[in-house]
Design brief:
heterodimer; A: alpha+beta; 3-stranded antiparallel β-sheet; 16 helices; 11 strands; B: alpha+beta; 4 strands
Chain lengths: ~400, ~80
């Protein structure tokens, strides 16, 4: 094969989706089966490694020679806006240990299992209220704006001590941060704005003795106001966009798989496993987790050299037949706990106990509270979020 | 990795310096693992898990993202 032949075969990422909007781009599936550690091309013409196998990605995410620091040479970004997001006032998700561990551990106690369990009654009450409001006097709604976004937004506001009345403002800013099409300048402005908002909020909390996370961080006196703002912004954005999109996509998936929906309604004991299966099947981070090699290493038989970028396609890994038999089928009864939807390694999602509780409660309230739940638009007309960092749907018309 | 089915004394070791508080252990083997309220890091409740909890412990070891847990034969 000549060099010219090779260059025409390099896949450009993000690759386009195939016929099924729930599935990873067919090119990623093909790579996993034929060339699991392959070269792909980014928007700026540079090329990086793409990992697609479950075992390879699990191994890579535990390897300290792969850095999460966006300022390190070779770190792959999918657009100028994403580069801005990954480098401007970077939070601990874009740092390596020991600094990453120091900052993350300031928050670990807020998301421990028993604290989240204690929060369940409040989350249930919020979900029940939202369902009441959504269904009062009508028989159809947009699930995204009337339920899926408000639920996690209300919860994260409660935990952080952010006034929910401001949700129009912070959702708009986070939309800019997470839009694939945002320019570096748009991201910079939105980021500065949101950080300034959290900083003012934190300053106002200094004289009070509230229990929320931002109050606790400001009274800890270990972080600068800028660091608190960065951490607060991370939690606020990550805390609602992910769960919101998982909620809408899970409902859509269940409506498209009525046999699975029926099983779930008949056996409420399946709900916890079903949420893991939805996380596996949908894995809403579709454009890969990014790392760069700071030392030479070998993964899946392939040498990766220091300074080379790596994209880890967790959506392809979660459909790896070697890890999950019949991986492209939805099966709410399977053991899907090994999925990589929350990542793996030291950066694995800090808020996952909360996300799980919210999703379990949201699905339970919706499928059992609305026995006649159905789509109120043709499936072909549902607008999927291919233009966003977090996959999902922009709206989901439902009726009951 | 030892098999949970082995008829030997098995001991769970947690390395709190590696723990990142993801909570997979406390979620999947709550009889054996907890998280302390101050730091949110792993606490082993039952260092020599009884036979009925061994499979859950094996799952917790495999699911720990930070490789903070080990399951070993008790040589003592």
């Amino acid at each position: 094969m000549t060099l010219a032949d090779q260059s025409t075969e390099v896949l450009a990422v993000p690759a386009s989706r195939g016929a099924c909007p729930f599935d990873p781009p067919p090119a990623y599936d093909q790579a996993r089966e034929q060339n699991p550690v392959s070269r792909v091309q980014l928007f700026d013409g540079s090329s990086v490694w793409m990992l697609t196998r479950h075992q390879d990605i699990r191994t890579a995410l535990q390897d300290h020679r792969l850095s999460a620091d966006g300022t390190k040479p070779g770190f792959p970004f999918l657009s100028p806006g994403r580069r801005q997001l990954g480098t401007q006032s970077a939070s601990f998700i874009r740092m390596d240990d020991p600094e990453h561990a120091r900052l993350r551990r300031m928050l670990t106690s807020d998301f421990i299992i028993k604290r989240v369990e204690a929060l369940r009654p409040q989350v249930k009450a919020i979900a029940a209220d939202l369902l009441d409001t959504m269904t009062r006097g009508k028989n159809h709604a947009d699930l995204v704006t009337e339920f899926a976004f408000p639920l996690p937004s209300l919860v994260i506001c409660l935990l952080l001590g952010v006034p929910y009345e401001d949700h129009g403002y912070f959702q708009k800013q986070s939309h800019i941060l997470l839009s694939a099409g945002s320019s570096a300048e748009q991201v910079r402005v939105a980021r500065d704005d949101l950080n300034g908002y959290i900083k003012n909020l934190a300053e106002a909390k200094r004289d009070h003795d509230d229990e929320d996370i931002i109050s606790r961080l400001i009274h800890r006196d270990e972080l600068t106001p800028d660091e608190i703002a960065t951490m607060g912004t991370l939690l606020l954005v990550a805390g609602h966009e992910t769960t919101a999109n998982m909620t809408s996509l899970s409902i859509l998936t269940l409506l498209r798989n009525p046999d699975q929906l029926k099983r779930l309604r008949e056996d409420p004991g399946l709900i916890r496993g079903a949420v893991e299966e939805m996380l596996r099947y949908l894995s809403i981070i579709h454009q890969g987790l990014a790392r760069t090699a700071v030392e030479d290493l070998e993964i899946g038989g392939q040498r990766i050299r220091a300074g080379e970028g790596v994209l880890l396609m967790i959506n392809a890994a979660n459909r790896d037949h070697e890890a999950f038999p019949d991986a492209d089928a939805v099966d709410v009864g399977r053991d899907a706990r090994r999925h990589l939807a929350f990542g793996f390694g030291v950066h694995q999602c800090l808020g996952q106990p909360l996300a799980r509780a919210e999703l379990q409660i949201a699905l339970d309230v919706l499928i059992n509270g609305l026995p006649n739940l159905r789509l109120a638009a043709p499936f072909e007309d549902i607008p999927f979020r291919d233009d966003m960092l977090v996959y999902g749907v922009h709206s989901l018309p439902i009726a009951w | 990795m030892v098999s949970p089915a082995e008829d030997v004394k098995l001991r769970v070791v947690a390395d709190r310096s590696k723990c990142m508080g993801a909570g997979m252990c406390a979620l999947n083997a709550p009889e054996v693992f907890d998280q302390d309220e101050d730091e949110g890091l792993v606490v082993v409740l039952e260092p020599e898990p009884s036979a009925e909890h061994r499979y859950a412990v094996r799952d917790a070891v495999n699911l720990c993202p930070a490789s903070a847990l080990r399951f070993e034969k008790d040589e003592a």
